[in-house]
Design goal:
The complex is a heterodimer.
Chain A (H helix, E strand, L loop, with lengths): L2 H11 L4 E4 L7 H6 L6 E4 L3 H13 L4 E6 H6 L1 H10 L5 E7 L13 H7 L3 E2 L4 H18 L3 E6 H4 L1 E2 L19 H4 L1 H24 L4 E4 L2 E8 L3 H8 L3 E6 L1 E3 L3 H9 L4 E4 L5 H8 L5 E2 L12 H9 L26 H12 L3 E4 L24 H13 L6 E7 H17 L5 E6 L28 H8 L3 E5 L4 H13 L4 E6 L6 H4 L7 E2 L9 H4 L5 E4 L3 E4 L9 H5 L5 E2 L14
Parallel strand pairs in A: 1-2, 1-3, 3-4, 4-6, 5-6, 9-10, 9-12, 12-13, 14-15, 15-16, 16-18, 17-18
Antiparallel strand pairs in A: 5-11, 8-10, 19-22, 20-21
Helix pairs in contact in A: 1-7, 3-5, 5-10, 11-14, 15-19, 16-17
Chain B lengths: L5 E8 L4 H14 L3 E5 L10 E9 L12 E6 L2 H7 L3 E10 L20 H7 L3 E5 L1 H8 L5 H10 L6 H11 L2 H4 L5
Parallel strand pairs in B: 1-4, 4-5, 5-6
Antiparallel strand pairs in B: 1-3, 2-3
The chains are: A alpha/beta, B alpha/beta.
Chain lengths: 590, 185
């Protein structure tokens, strides 16, 4: 099973009562998998802070709670994460942060081991799926024994690696219950009394860390000492198979005495870690200086065996054949029939009129890349709304630029709503386009409060975006189908001209949702007779439309999904829906 | 470095079934009594883009990633992807590839990117052992183009030391019967 599936299994074995989180690569499959286990409730929350607070409530009520998120998700939950250690928890409380070194599907690299130190909570770092499972159970035990949240930190290559996992039997946690204790849980008035207790707890955790069974030495060559943790341990094992290893399964609180004893055995110790010099700094701050770490091992990007071999032995990895043969890139694209394609095509046309599109996090971030290049910024979840508000504030209503925020339905619910309230409150002239595909698409079509379904696919109350936005005080709210590009362009123009905040909801379900995908559609028909070679269809950037200067568009009928967006703007009517040319659905597909 | 380990790099285009093929191989290795690890990346990186899965098996496997230059076999479901990842092989390594070409999208605003021709010939000139199939075409004549990966896995099996029984177990566990039935055994 994968590391994520192993975390879910571990949570089930540990008797987790409730698990929640917000989808984010590479953490998503934990909640999805756990929702299939009996006896545990696992469901999505609207954002990571909500998830964290809900899980805290479960813990205070005496039950075991798990909360999962990707690394940047912990930034959203940080307000809660930093304070909970003051009161501590009752039922076991485990926070899973899945970091993404190399940014396979993320906007930044951040080493969340520092969050453990920052928030003063114990940190566990598994080296493979087996430990990912086992550490969840251990984390719950530590959490209840020391009354503290525990951070279980994985990375992409732990979360998405499949390996053999030996299963355990489920346990029943010892019963706990909430007892009123205002001086402990009403933090602000009692924070000064609680503050030293956090340090006292850390001292006890430090003692625990010194003899923790997963902080252990693996004997090898007595001349070569290596300290490592996480997946970096596995790469080190490939490159230095015979070294003596100290692997740290619990790297905060740092087991100083144990590490010092280890380092005294060697002239020099190699510290191999992915990302920041977290272990190395812990060594140096304790006066252990016979170490080499980030002087040799790269700090940026994902580590792998060839990078490590290059860093240690100086052996360069083999070069690709790009010098001898053309190897064109194959970048990620909007899927065939993706409704976002219409939005960015329409926006591209508006850019000539000085529109600046300030974007957000989701599949639609691809709208910033060729052939659209019409979304110009993307920073983090929910930023588009405030960014557009600020941009409009600075450029003014008579300026030659008009700010448009671009956000998805899931991201709007996650972090966009407060910004929109401010747009109204501050009488902004910015426009917000909500690309509503009724799902959290980028992480694999997870349900959200606007999709009307639970994680199990059952009916759930559905947030009515129009009523929500109107109730905030936005008086220009229009819902359009981005498949109708002419309507989309007209509505966008009207929204931009509107003398106040305006919202356009471009609503069409993601075609990756199973029911949408299974709808049968006929490929578009090309009639060469009226074609005027304007090339608009080719410039639309659909993977199913290629171009020939002799004959016009070439439709790949195997790829065409029949979304018919191209037909809505083909001036001479050369591209037509199959039905319009007299072909009924289901017959005559060549 | 890593004794007794077989490294298979599986490459293709998102949607071709490369990740499922990788899982099938890993399951076959497990069924043969070996330890196996498989690693890949999910998320937006996959949307119609280049996809790669690392499969490693042997008595004891550490790294989930194959060190570049140490792959024993490259399984490529598409010609350009075979070329893109060939340098991950060790000298003289095996390539099992479908000669199918999937054009990356041409960008209207960008200069034409040339799609490489004669890839198998080029790779042979680099002294790799290249086995070329027209798997999708053959699968279509069998009646279901989704069988293409089964045909490629069959070709891959001739380059590996995994028993037939283990392969059959893995194929039945990971793939639907309708994809297996049309393939002659």
């Amino acid at each position: 099973m994968s590391g994520n599936e192993a975390v879910a299994r571990g949570a089930w074995e540990a008797g987790t009562h409730y698990a929640t989180g917000y989808p984010g690569t590479p953490s998503t499959e934990i909640i999805e998998t756990l929702s299939g286990y009996p006896g545990v409730t696992a469901e999505w929350s609207t954002n990571e802070k909500v998830a964290f607070d809900v899980a805290t409530g479960v813990s205070l009520a005496g039950k075991r709670a798990l909360v999962t998120m990707k690394h940047v998700g912990l930034n959203v939950a940080a307000d809660s994460f930093m304070v909970l250690p003051y009161s501590g928890c009752i039922g076991g409380f485990v926070v899973v942060s899945a970091d993404d070194p190399g940014m396979h599907s993320s906007q930044n690299e951040q080493d969340n081991r520092y969050f453990a130190k920052f928030g003063k909570v114990p940190l566990l770092e598994p080296v493979d799926p087996q430990e990912a499972k086992d550490f969840v159970r251990i984390a719950f035990d530590i959490s209840e024994r020391f009354e503290t949240p525990v951070l279980l930190r994985t990375t992409t290559r732990i979360s998405h690696t499949k390996g053999v996992v030996t299963l355990g039997e489920p346990v029943t946690p010892s019963p706990k219950s909430y007892e009123t204790d205002i001086p402990r849980f009403l933090v602000p008035p009692f924070a000064r009394r609680l503050r030293p207790l956090v340090e006292e707890r850390l001292e006890r955790l430090q003692e625990f860390s010194e003899s923790f069974e997963y902080n252990r030495v693996e004997e090898g060559d007595p001349g070569v000492g290596v300290i490592t943790s996480g997946v970096a341990y596995q790469y080190a094992r490939e490159v230095l198979p015979h070294a003596t290893y100290l692997r740290l399964g619990m790297s905060f609180p740092f087991p100083v005495a144990m590490v010092r004893r280890f380092c005294e055995r060697f002239d020099q110790v190699l510290v191999i870690e992915e990302g920041e010099p977290f272990l190395e700094e812990s060594l140096r701050v304790n006066g252990i200086d016979n170490v080499v770490g980030k002087q040799k091992i790269p700090l940026t990007g994902e580590l792998n065996p060839e990078i490590l071999a290059h860093a240690i032995h100086g052996t360069p990895p083999p070069k690709s054949y790009a010098d001898e043969m053309p190897i064109p890139p194959r970048p990620p694209l909007f899927c065939l029939g993706c409704p976002h394609r219409g939005v960015f095509y329409a926006l591209k046309k508006r850019m000539k009129a000085g529109v600046v599109a300030l974007g957000d996090i989701g599949c639609y971030t691809l709208g910033g890349l060729p052939p659209y290049s019409s979304m110009q910024t993307s920073l983090c979840m929910g930023a588009s709304v405030g960014n557009a508000l600020g941009f409009a504030q600075a450029t003014g209503d008579n300026g030659d630029r008009k700010a448009v925020g671009i956000i998805g339905d899931g991201t709007f619910l996650h972090g966009g709503i407060p910004g929109l309230i401010d747009m109204v409150y501050k009488k902004s002239l910015a426009t917000l386009v909500i690309c509503d595909n009724s799902t959290t698409a980028m992480t694999g079509q997870q349900q959200n409060p606007a999709s009307g379904k639970t994680i199990a696919g059952e009916a759930a109350p559905r947030v009515d975006l129009v009523r929500l936005i109107e109730s905030i005080g936005v008086d220009f709210v229009r819902v359009i189908d981005p498949y109708d590009i002419q309507d989309l362009r007209k509505t966008l123009s009207a929204a931009i001209r509107h003398p106040g905040p305006s919202v356009v909801i471009a609503r069409h379900a993601c075609l990756m949702i199973r029911e949408e995908r299974e709808k049968v559609r006929e490929p578009i028909r090309f009639d060469p007779e009226p074609c005027n070679f304007c090339k608009a269809c080719y410039e639309f950037g659909c993977p199913a439309i290629d171009w020939s200067d002799e004959s016009g568009p070439i439709i790949d009928e195997l790829q065409c999904m029949g979304c018919e967006m191209c037909a809505t703007f083909c001036g001479p009517g050369a591209l037509q829906p199959a039905e319009a040319v007299g072909l009924a659905l289901g017959d005559g597909a060549s | 470095m890593t004794e007794g380990i077989t490294n298979v790099l599986m490459a293709g285009v998102g949607g071709q079934g490369v990740l499922v093929a990788g899982e099938t191989l890993a399951l076959a290795a497990l069924a043969d009594g070996l330890e196996a690890k498989q690693s890949e990346v999910h998320g937006v990186a996959q949307r119609g883009g280049s996809v790669v899965s690392h499969v490693r098996f042997g008595p004891r496997v550490h790294s989930p990633l194959i060190r570049c230059g140490e792959a024993s076999v490259l399984y490529a479901a598409e010609r350009l992807e075979a070329l893109r990842y060939a340098h991950h092989l060790k000298p003289g390594g095996n390539i099992v590839m479908d000669d199918r070409a999937i054009q990356p999208i041409r960008m209207p605003d960008a200069p034409d990117t040339q799609y490489p021709e004669e890839v198998p010939e080029f790779l042979r000139s680099k002294r790799y052992e290249v086995l070329v199939l027209e798997a999708v075409r053959e699968a279509e004549t069998l009646g279901d183009k989704r069988c293409a990966n089964v045909l490629l896995l069959g070709a891959l099996a001739t380059r590996l030391q995994i028993g037939d029984e283990a392969w059959n177990l893995a194929l039945r566990e990971r793939l639907p019967a309708k994809v297996l039935e049309p393939v002659p055994s």
